[in-house]
Write a structure and sequence with these properties.
Oligomer: heterodimer
Radius of gyration of chain A: 36 Å
Largest sheet of chain A: 16 strands, antiparallel, barrel
CATH architecture of the largest domain in chain A: Beta Barrel
Shape of chain A: elongated
CATH superfamily of the largest domain in chain B: Nitrogenase molybdenum iron protein domain
Shape of chain B: globular
Number of domains of chain A: 3
Number of helices of chain B: 10
CATH topology of the largest domain in chain A: Porin
Strand content of chain A: 35-45%
Radius of gyration of chain B: 22 Å
Distance between the termini of chain B: 84 Å
Number of domains of chain B: 2
Distance between the termini of chain A: 89 Å
Strand order of the largest sheet of chain A: 3-4-5-6-7-8-9-10-11-12-13-14-15-16-17-18
Strand order of the largest sheet of chain B: 2-1-3-4
CATH class of the largest domain in chain B: Alpha Beta
Structural class of chain B: alpha/beta
């Protein structure tokens, strides 16, 4: 009992002493320019350290610095620990799987990868065992020694999906395709329109294959895009387009599929495959990026309903100048429906007979498209881009009969330096094109050369976040021997208003005033267009 | 004739040498946002030329991939990217057009600062765009935590050392100076913010979780109903009573946001609107990374004090 008393009193003494020392330090802390006594108690003798206030402050500052540094290190450590744990879990999993399969050599191919990732995300029952494994496994070294890596392990641990999918929870959808976690991005874009028009056959006045083509509803474009890096040297993209035509028949077309080089020397870049020809601004782009519900008349006239595209190669060179200047040279096949003004059996021949056979016989049968583009930043907020293109190739009205198309394009954009969500902005885009078409003589018609031209100019004004107002003017001159509005001289005015609920959807209302001079008629059309975009779509160029 | 060719070749040679020596006089660094650029300048100082892509005053999610940036990337020795898909809408086409091997992903000249060391907040467990434009790898506004700035600075230093070994000591020295200054400043900021610990705030977009965590603010809601979706009347109608209930004192918005709705909500709830630059260089007072936080902390404190 007495002993207990003793110990108690000693304790009380110690506590009170400690408290005193503390309060003393505190009270002195408040006074400026005073010496601070830091009493440090040893077992036998007390030491007194005298330091100045500013020195003390510095020490405190340093300590705080150390504290933050330590916090920082802890954060770092924590994130690494979780990373490690994830890796361990992945390895454990793999081991288990190997044991289950009892197959020593597993080929690592794409099929396997797919199967495994679905397995991981599907296998709800395997997840709890996994997490328990991570918590019970005390150190990464131990599991390392336990685990003898199979020959495939190095390849499989490199897959980003194997570590990422460990965080799976039952609420998570099967996110097999998402940016950065997979070898390719996939996206799907749907573009639809509802149309009303004074013209009975809308497709007799609309020139584009993806334009609204009838009163009522049109499925304009269902576009699936795959893109990603092929390897360190190439990037690949493919665009598959599904369409449902006027009669309800579905069709599938490979709109584009090409690779782009990433590491050629001398500022060169090659694009190879089948792709939209880089002629002007609008031709190389896809319908869902357009500012209007239909394509300009001139594009339809010269490049046909589906735009100018074909299998081929494009070489481009970025000039080492201070402002952007790029030279392009494209060589493509000149036959088929997508080389409208060139060699194709369905295209315009102005009544002339087709005589050329559609194969490529020599270099002269190719389509050559040079282009130069240059850009200036006028101010911090304004950018101007000029381009000049030409397309040379044979047409199908006879041997040595050629088509030449020349184009000038201009794009100007203003965007506020306080832009939020990309708004407000104003863009102005204009293209002028001219064509020289040599037609060979046929039974009814003599040798003749036809020159045509056309232009469009459009303004889009993002006046408020999510809202864009647009206005476009179109003009094309009349083609010789033309029989319908698709060939008549005409001009068109198209105001529109677009609402973007988010960057992945839009609703657009457009009115077309169509003055067809060739048969002295006017047509009025109204389109309501809507678009949705699923998945990770590749970013668009300027 | 032979003489002529010889002199021509000689001239070409001279030109080439001159050009390369000029080009290598300083390291050209392109940073996607200005805070990354500012840190690169702190570490590289006289050895580097820094160009930023996003304007310090604009929404960094939506930047135009202007052709002039292609030229700048073409001549860059290093590209610094924040990562976490902040730049996904505009950087990839620029890099693809730049024809510069140095800055291709995976090479020394391409630094994604969020790839290591940063503790990323708000990593979604599921991907669903019905939840708004959520960044699949987590919130990318990590530079608003000074300690993350410190981590990023050390990443930049490491990379500069890899690219330019000869000046490694210089970069390390600069890093040391910068870190020391930042640490000192951070304790000052934290001290200044200490009286306001736990203050409830509402922000426009999820831009400030890192800042709030470091400086002990409590973000209780956003004006946006979902990330990237502008404020809707229904959302504001539920937000206002909630803010009154919880006693929210501050509405923090970025410089580029519209002011009408924040001011309306402020008038309804008695909270104060604070406009904060989130990138270096948006204002005269925020021309470097430390000055940016000086300004932000000053703004918040003066709003809370009054």
């Amino acid at each position: 009992m007495r002993r207990l008393n003793y110990t108690l009193s000693v304790c009380i003494l110690l506590v009170s002493h400690g408290y005193c020392a503390h309060s003393e330090a505190k009270s002195i802390d408040k006074k400026d320019y005073q010496l601070i006594n830091v009493a440090e108690e040893d077992d036998e003798n007390t030491k007194e350290i005298r330091i100045r206030k500013d020195e003390f402050d510095e020490i405190v500052g340093q300590l705080q610095g150390m504290k933050t540094l330590l916090e920082n290190m802890k954060q770092n450590f924590d994130s690494r620990l979780t990373e490690m744990q994830e890796k361990i879990a992945a390895l454990e999993k793999e081991k288990k799987q190997l044991q289950e399969n009892k197959i020593a050599t597993v080929k690592v191919d794409s099929n396997n990868l797919k199967a495994r990732t679905t397995n991981e995300t599907k296998g709800q029952n395997t997840i709890p065992t996994q997490t328990s494994a991570t918590t019970t496994s005390p150190s990464p070294t131990q599991t390392d020694t336990e685990f003898t890596p199979p020959p495939t392990s190095t390849a499989s641990t490199n897959q980003p999906s194997s570590t990422e999918s460990e965080k799976w929870s039952p609420t998570q959808p099967l996110a097999l395709w998402s940016a950065g976690k997979n070898y390719m991005n996939i996206s799907f874009d749907g573009l639809f329109a509802a149309a009303g028009s004074t013209a009975k056959d809308l497709d007799k006045i609309e020139t584009g294959g993806h334009d609204p083509n009838q009163r009522g509803f049109t499925v304009q474009n269902l576009e699936t895009v795959f893109d990603g890096a092929i390897d360190p040297y190439f990037k690949g993209q493919s665009v598959l387009v599904f369409q449902i035509d006027k009669n309800g028949a579905s069709s599938l077309e490979i709109e584009e599929a090409y690779l782009t080089t990433m590491s050629l020397p001398l500022n060169l870049q090659v694009k190879a495959g089948t792709f939209f020809t880089e002629f002007g601004r609008l031709n190389p782009t896809h319908p869902h990026t357009w500012d209007f519900a239909d394509q300009p008349l001139i594009n339809g006239r010269f490049f046909g309903p589906d735009g100018l595209r074909n299998p081929g190669v494009r070489l481009s060179w970025l000039a080492p100048t201070d402002n952007y200047t790029e030279l392009f040279l494209t060589a493509q096949n000149s036959q088929g429906n997508t080389a409208f003004s060139f060699r194709n059996n369905n295209s315009i021949r102005f009544g002339h007979a087709s005589s050329a056979d559609p194969g490529v016989r020599s270099m002269e049968d190719m389509l050559y498209v040079p282009r130069i583009a240059t850009s200036f930043d006028l101010t911090e907020e304004q950018t101007l881009l000029f381009g000049s293109s030409a397309a040379f190739g044979p047409n199908s009205t006879g041997t040595d009969k050629n088509t030449q198309i020349y184009g000038l394009d201009m794009f100007w954009k203003w965007k506020s330096r306080y832009a939020s969500g990309g708004f407000p902005f104003v863009t102005w885009q204009t293209e002028v094109m001219a064509r020289r078409f040599e037609a060979g003589s046929s039974s009814a018609l003599p040798d003749e050369t036809m020159n045509n031209w056309g232009a469009y100019s459009q303004i889009a004004w993002g006046f408020k976040t999510r809202w864009v107002a647009g206005f476009r003017g179109d003009f094309v001159d009349g083609e010789k021997h033309a029989t319908d509005p698709l060939g008549f001289e005409r001009w068109r005015l198209s105001p529109n208003l677009t609402f973007y609920p988010s960057e992945f959807s839009k609703i657009r209302l457009q009115y077309n005033y169509d003055d067809i001079l060739g048969n002295a008629s006017t047509e009025h059309s109204v389109f309501l267009q809507f678009e949705f975009l699923l998945g990770a779509h590749a970013a668009h160029k300027f | 004739m032979k003489m002529k060719i010889k002199s021509f070749v000689y001239l070409c040679f001279l030109f080439a040498i001159g050009w390369t020596s000029v080009a290598y006089a300083k390291l050209n660094i392109v940073a996607t946002t200005s805070e990354l650029g500012a840190l690169a300048k702190e570490i590289g100082r006289d050895n580097v030329e820094v160009i930023n892509i996003a304007k310090p005053t604009e929404d960094p999610h939506f930047v135009d991939a202007k052709p002039s940036f292609i030229v700048k990337l073409n001549k860059a020795d290093m590209l610094i990217e924040g990562g976490l898909q902040l730049e996904i809408g505009w950087l990839p086409p620029l890099v693809a057009s730049a024809r510069n091997q140095k800055i291709l992903p995976g090479n020394h000249g391409h630094l994604i600062v969020a790839s290591t060391g940063i503790q990323v907040l708000e990593v979604p467990t599921s991907l669903d765009r019905a939840m708004g434009d959520v960044h699949p790898f987590g919130n990318p506004h990590f530079m608003l935590d000074p300690l993350n700035g410190e981590i990023v600075a050390s990443h930049i230093c490491d990379r500069l050392c890899q690219i330019d070994l000869a000046n490694c000591d210089y970069y390390k020295e600069n890093l040391k100076i910068f870190t020391k200054r930042l640490d000192q400043k951070l304790s000052e900021w934290q001290k200044a913010m200490e009286p306001f610990r736990g203050t409830k705030v509402v922000t426009y977009h999820k831009t400030f979780p890192y800042f709030a965590e470091r400086f002990n603010l409590d973000v209780v809601g956003e004006l946006e109903p979902k990330p990237g979706i502008p404020p809707s009347p229904t959302h504001i109608n539920t937000l206002v009573p909630m803010m009154k209930n919880k006693g929210v004192k501050l509405i923090i918005i970025e410089e580029f946001r519209e002011r009408k709705i924040p001011e309306f909500v402020a008038a309804q709830t008695g909270a104060k609107v604070v406009i904060i630059p989130i990138m270096v260089g948006g204002l005269k007072e925020t021309n470097d990374y430390i000055a940016l936080f000086d300004y932000i902390v000053k703004q918040i404190i003066s709003a809370l004090k009054s």
